[in-house]
Design brief:
heterodimer; A: 215 residues; MetI-like fold; B: 314 residues; mainly alpha; 13 helices; transmembrane transporter activity (chain B)
């Protein structure tokens, strides 16, 4: 217990770091994932290819490699003003967006074809059909898988601690270096992650309940 | 999906075709611009000079990269074996009739699935008993098993390797257990009932009837999780296990050129190797899933010779 109480401020900073990292990456992942999904189903062939290629590459890249590439590569491309935190958000958000795209695309398959057909017979364009009719329903259908994606994102955010961002993994590293018993430190950090993950899964259970598509 | 067959848009008329063509051109130009910008910036930063790439022509450097790849594969192979063993063990535990087995198995699976892998690996890496244990085993191997023992100790007695392998095995083993359990629940009841009717014991039913079918139906998910296992070995980078990425980083750090350290060239060599390995595995998983779907299609149950000709491996 004294490990936690003695370093309460450290833990608080780490926890806030993880929450901020997860929250911002989530927003980016959902936005970028939706864009990628639209790319993959749109009538313009090159965009479909770009979407598919991007998702395939991102899904098959180890996150550590992506972190390494982004933290070294982006500053070299002229984006040198970015903080490590921003770079981490870009990495985590970009990585997760590929999986969000895969989830949304399978969500589109669950939407009744009659919906899209009705939209088209009303004279709606592709953009209208997709954004107003199909994607909202697909989104509601994929609430559970997106929830588990976000839990994975929370866990993946620990990797940012290895790339100069202050979050819960950094707390574990710092306290291990200071010579605290590693098992105790591990258990406290584990508890913090468990609390976060339970919160997310609770929120998503609620969302699932509220947004379920009645068929 | 072909542009005529989508349910999301009509087959384009003359105006739509023109608009799609314009969008296509814009997309291609946009991508070309981005790629061009990246190349120009990297060129300006001196990333394509000979000094940056010269190191890769040395045999010593090539060997180091190869050893890095082999170390990645070593950790991967060990992690896959242990995670599958653990997966079967935990799945059997969770399917058990006895609470004494079921509850601990459930607790372990739920805990390890919720833990960030890196946190676990780092904790294992810092645990004293793991180091002394590995050192003790290494000493035993060297003293009592002669040549083979020395080889084993040289190649496998590294606490970093085992921290990585044990961490990955605990996490992925728990996930594999859940996959297997889902597969076991999908095995038709009649299968177990028939097995019991033949007088098999519960353990026999689970190991010879239920689990084999669960493995078969869940094979795509299992291989998919093995891809995750491969990706997870890159976490060794953080605890300085000398896998592919870390070998590359060391290489870059030790090669000073006028334009700085060759991180980008190393990344351009090591990255595609990693992605290629993962891509090969996940293509295999997709192929398995595709094959499974074809086999389950009712029309194909009684195959005509023509079907066999088309897909002999089915």
């Amino acid at each position: 217990m004294h490990v936690l109480l003695d370093n309460l401020d450290l833990f608080r900073r780490g926890f806030v770091g993880t929450v901020a990292l997860t929250g911002l990456s989530t927003v980016l992942a959902l936005a970028l994932g939706t864009v990628l999904t639209v790319f993959r189903v749109c009538p313009v062939p090159p965009l479909r290819v770009i979407g598919a290629a991007g998702v395939t590459v991102l899904c098959n890249t180890p996150l550590t490699l992506l972190f390494f590439g982004v933290t070294l590569g982006l500053p070299m491309l002229g984006l040198s003003g970015l903080s490590y935190f921003t770079l981490a958000v870009l990495t985590l958000g970009g990585y997760t967006s590929a999986f969000v795209c895969e989830a949304l695309r399978s969500g589109i398959n669950t939407v009744d074809t009659g919906q899209a057909e009705a939209a088209r017979s009303l004279g709606m364009s592709f953009a209208q059909t997709t954004l107003l009719i199909v994607l909202p329903q697909a989104g509601r259908a994929v609430v559970p898988p997106v929830g588990s994606l976000l839990i994975t994102l929370t866990k993946n955010s620990a990797l940012a601690g290895g790339f100069s961002v202050y979050e819960l993994f950094s707390v574990e590293k710092t306290l291990a270096e200071e010579g605290y018993a590693i098992l105790t430190v591990f258990l406290w950090v584990a508890l913090a992650y468990l609390a976060l993950i339970m919160m997310i899964s609770g929120v998503f259970r609620l969302l699932e309940h509220r947004l379920a598509v009645v068929r | 999906m072909t542009s005529g067959g989508s349910i999301l848009f009509e087959a384009p008329g003359p105006r739509g075709r023109r608009r799609n063509r314009i969008c296509s051109v814009l997309a291609v130009v946009g991508i070309a611009a981005v790629v061009g910008y990246v190349i120009v910036r990297l060129h300006d930063a001196g990333q394509f000079t000979w000094a940056m790439w010269e190191a890769f022509t040395y045999q010593g450097v090539q060997r180091r990269i190869l050893i890095g790849a082999l170390d990645t594969l070593k950790a991967f192979a060990l992690a896959v074996v242990f995670s599958l063993l653990l997966g079967v063990l935990l799945a059997t535990g969770r399917l058990s009739r006895h609470r004494v087995l079921r509850w601990p198995a459930t607790a372990l699976v739920e805990f390890f699935r919720a833990m960030p892998l890196l946190i676990m690996i780092f904790a294992l890496y810092n645990m004293g008993w793991l180091r002394s244990w590995v050192a003790a085993v290494a000493r035993f191997l060297r003293e009592h098993l002669g040549q083979a023992g020395v080889w084993l100790a040289d190649n496998f007695a590294s606490p970093t390797l085992w921290a990585l392998v044990i961490g990955i095995a605990l996490y992925n083993g728990s996930v594999q257990a859940e996959i297997l359990r889902a597969g076991a629940r999908a095995v038709p009841r009649g299968q177990t009932e028939a097995a019991y009717a033949l007088g098999m014991r519960k353990a026999q039913v689970t190991t010879t009837v239920v689990l084999p079918q669960a493995v078969r139906s869940m094979l795509p998910s299992i291989v998919g999780q093995i891809v995750v296992t491969l990706k997870d070995t890159s976490l060794g980078f953080i605890i300085t296990y000398e896998e592919l990425l870390y070998a590359g980083k060391l290489l870059a750090q030790n090669t000073a050129t006028p334009a700085g350290y060759p991180y980008i060239p190393v990344l351009l060599v090591v990255g595609p190797m990693y992605i290629g390995m993962c891509l090969a595995l996940s293509t295999f998983a997709t192929w398995l899933a595709h094959r499974g779907r074809q086999q389950r299609r009712p029309g194909l149950r009684f195959r005509s010779p023509a079907d066999h000709d088309r897909k002999p491996s089915g």
